[in-house]
Predict the 3D structure of the following.
Amino acid sequence: MNNAKHSALERGNRSVGMEGPLVIPQRWLDHERLIMNLYAQPYPESKLMHPRGTSLWAEIQEFAHRFVVDNHVPWEQYARQRQHSRIAFIVGTTVLNECPKLLHVFEGAHGHRKAYRNVFHFNAEISEVTEPGHIVTGTLYLDRLDDALLSLYDREKLTSIGDFDSVSGFRKPKEEPSTELERLRRIIRAELLQRLGVRAGCPLPMGLPQLIQTSARKSFKDYRISCSVARMCLALLLIQERKARGRFESMGSANAFSDAGLLKDALFFKASILSQDQGVRQMASFCGVTVRRDLHVT
């Protein structure tokens, strides 16, 4: 649910200070980035490497509206319109995983780097997850889409990742790892057993819908809980909707988990979602997240 493609990218900050004296490229210093723990608290090296990005979290929260955007939403068109200048557009893991060619998220067709004051990239690098799905360690990255952002990435990999004709052989997986699928099965199994118990008149703990609502209220600035709630919402969708189960089987589980990623990011930022996907709308309804199809005035 976190980031299939970005795990293959070389983060620029990994190489800083590994050999010889610490030298931070000027482009990195110019770029606005916030490096955080799982509770949106900045790491000390964030200010050292990206001094201009220290207030990014607070700035996003000051926008009149925040939207996590789906891959097929024209977020770039919206972002450049003056009437949307007080809206923060968050390009999260779903777009970064589903974009046909990842370089186009950062750069236009003619090589011009994209830069918008109200567009932000959000990405997670999860280091360790327990078998039940508890995230032990991880790092979160929040970037403004400025013209220096591309300098942090391996451009060659950005060019090839998402290109299904690439000689590098990168491919978007159709299925999530078996460990993540097993976590989903556990949730579904527990809910079905709970429902059977209720029918039999047995007093049991709260069901999945109640657990989702209770947990969602604690998800702001808590990446662990946001991931857990999104996973539970996907499980509930599969339990309730036959069409969703059909898509899960035919299109692959990775697509469904990617949709749940929109929910994860929206919960973490206390944001809404821009998506035309019916499954996303249904999952969001379980935990009270607002979804809009577009930003056109009706």
Summary: Residues 174 and 252 are 5 Å apart (CA to CA).
